[in-house]
Write a structure and sequence with these properties.
Helix content is about 40%, strand content about 20%. It is of the alpha/beta class. About 30% of the residues are buried.
Length: about 160
């Protein structure tokens, strides 16, 4: 694969996201990490803040490009000539949701976009941004789930 894309809301980016991105980056020449603006989700951080966190957490991975995106992902992928979406899977619930997205992207792109699934490592099976936000709200331990840069950002946000 020359070019692949990994997308997410990243509110905030977790160690689970980073692990999938790091593994995916070994599969292609360039991995575009698209920070999405999802109108269906109320986010804790702005699109710009989420992009900044993603860039900081992934700065050690040389072959990635972090972009912001709003709109239909298949259209953006067509614009940049990308045919592969990388998605991480944690559990059966993820599989059902991700499978519907994969079929949707395949259909919308007239069979041009393929989805590649990477299973999460055992230590990140139950890590999610929503769990992390809940832990942060109640001042729980975050270092198993987030990088230090992100921990500082989320703590500061909950102090506001």
């Amino acid at each position: 694969m020359k070019l692949a894309l990994y997308s997410g809301t990243f509110d905030p980016i977790t160690k689970g996201h980073r692990e999938i991105i790091k593994r995916a980056s070994k599969m292609c020449d360039t991995l575009v990490v698209a920070v999405l603006n999802n109108s269906a989700k109320k986010t804790l951080f702005s699109l710009e803040e989420r992009k900044e966190m993603v860039e900081e957490v992934l700065k050690d991975i040389e072959n990635i490009e972090v972009v912001e995106h709003s709109g239909l992902l298949a259209n953006y992928m067509n614009e940049i000539g990308c045919k592969y979406i990388i998605r991480g899977l944690r559990a059966v619930v993820d599989y059902e949701y991700e499978l519907s997205l994969a079929y949707g992207n395949y259909d919308v792109s007239n069979g041009e976009i393929e989805t590649v699934f990477i299973p999460a490592s055992k230590e990140y099976l139950y890590v999610s941004s929503s769990v992390v936000r809940e832990l942060a709200l109640y001042k729980g331990k975050l270092d198993n789930y987030l990088d230090d840069f992100v921990i500082e950002k989320i703590k500061k946000r909950f102090e506001e």
